Amino acid sequence: MATRWKRRERFRLRRALEGALIVALLCGGALALWASGGHALDLGEEGAGARGAPSDKHLAYRYMTVGWLDWAAMQLADIVNKRPDVESLIVLGMLLDELEDDQQAVRAYEQAIQMAADDPRTQSAALTLLGNLHWKAGRTGSAKEAFQKALELSETNAQALFGMGRIAEDAGRDLEAIEWYERAAQAAPEWIEPVVRAASLLNGQGDFGRAAVLLKEASHLGIWHAEYHFQLALSYEGLLSTVLAQGVSPELAEKLEAIAIAPDEPGRRLKEHALHAVDRVKQLDAQHPGLESLLHRLQDF
Length: 301
Prior knowledge:
By secondary structure, this protein is mainly α. It has 15 helices and no strands. It folds into two domains: 1-188, Tetratricopeptide repeat domain (Serine Threonine Protein Phosphatase 5, Tetratricopeptide repeat, Alpha Horseshoe); 192-301, Serine Threonine Protein Phosphatase 5, Tetratricopeptide repeat (Alpha Horseshoe). Helix 7 (140-153) runs antiparallel to helix 8 and helix 12 packs antiparallel against helix 14. It is elongated. Residues 18-34 and 36-54 have low confidence and may be disordered.
């Protein structure tokens, strides 16, 4: 499970990198990095007067947009060796991370952190990227230290909050992880990943009602997210099992009301909702692990 999650996380980070690079190109070199509650962070000097030869920097961005990451890295490395700036260092770190040059990526991030000493939000974002790199490499202690420093600088840094959640989850501290993920979701209400991770852990603990409520509140974010629908189906399945085994207690009735399940025939309605969520998973990721066994379980009800 951890391997699959890390593989998906790597794909997500690649897409985030691509998005950041496009923003950097369109904004004339001002890299927007979402880390603190969805706000854009200016990570460098802008415009024609920016250090590091803007034309060279834009050429590096163009290399990135067509997937020539090694060429882009060489271009940015030349820029930062001559006249380093925070933006170039951070983008270089992201590229080197993607190219799996761990040591050089760490150096780029650490240099960016030092140069951004007078900009807490940018420094917090760079620390978070460094923490993500350490986490992927299995250096949990270093990752935790980076995330903690990032949060000292910006307590609403959703990426750092999420990183702390991953560390807690990896260590088996599910309750702590859920708290971190929920804080990340509150800091970045348009980001679905912390919601899905929190719901997954809640489902794993048998707290299906809370998981369902959390997921339904973020339904507008999960439309095209296979794991969202899978976790939603699991929460409906768990609620269905509870209703059939124990009936509907006052506490459960409140949770059913919160997820718009009418009190009449809740078992039938929960099964219908679960099957609908399973259909969405099929549409989005037909090879999703656990999908077939979940469908068989639901058909047995």
